[in-house]
Design goal:
The protein is an alpha/beta fold. It has a single domain (about 10-140), classed as Glutaredoxin (3-Layer(aba) Sandwich), CATH 3.40.30.10. The chain contains three helices and six strands; from the N terminus they run E-E-E-H-E-H-E-H-E. The protein has helices at about 45-60, 80-90, 105-115, and strands at about 10-15, 20, 30-35, 65-70, 95-100, 130-135. The radius of gyration is 15 Å and the shape is globular.
Length: about 150
């Protein structure tokens, strides 16, 4: 568990519908983030399938969760490409959306998300999605649950 309350910058994303979304969580919301390129034919597609399984498991727990698949390739990952990726992986926008980082904030986003103070703990399960949670309670949300529950 984080020993201090890290600052989460207000990094903005444009989702598959063209709507702006903030990385910051809202109230007690848990935010899960994965990084993709929609044109990646291998690991990104596998990650998308895993994220869909995670979404299905989390919906059953009724946790207040928002999931974002973020592309760092805005030149090629157009809104149409984001929408196609979302459709392929059944990301409907709630709780899971597909987005691209705002070009003006790309450097800031990369700096924060790769910094040693990034507010995450290693996930105990097969999913490798980093989590941003409200600063008052930074913890992996499923730590106390048995992995069998998500199988």
């Amino acid at each position: 568990m984080a020993k201090h309350r890290p600052y989460v910058p207000d990094i903005m994303f444009e989702d598959m519908t063209g709507t702006s979304q903030s990385l910051r969580s809202q109230s007690s919301e848990i935010v899960l983030v994965e990084f993709i390129y929609t044109t990646c034919p291998t690991i990104c597609q596998t990650a998308g399938s895993d994220f869909a399984q995670l979404r299905d498991a989390l919906v059953q727990t009724r946790e207040n969760v928002r999931m974002i698949s973020v592309s760092f390739n805005p030149a090629n990952d157009t809104l149409a490409a984001l929408g196609d990726y979302a459709e392929l992986h059944t990301a409907s926008g709630s709780p899971w959306t597909v987005a691209r980082v705002d070009v003006a904030q790309r450097a800031q986003a990369l700096d924060f998300l790769t910094s040693p103070s990034f507010p995450i703990e290693p996930p105990p399960l097969k999913w490798s999605a980093p989590i941003v949670r409200k600063a008052e309670d930074l913890r992996w949300p499923l730590r106390d649950q048995s992995p069998k529950r998500l199988s």
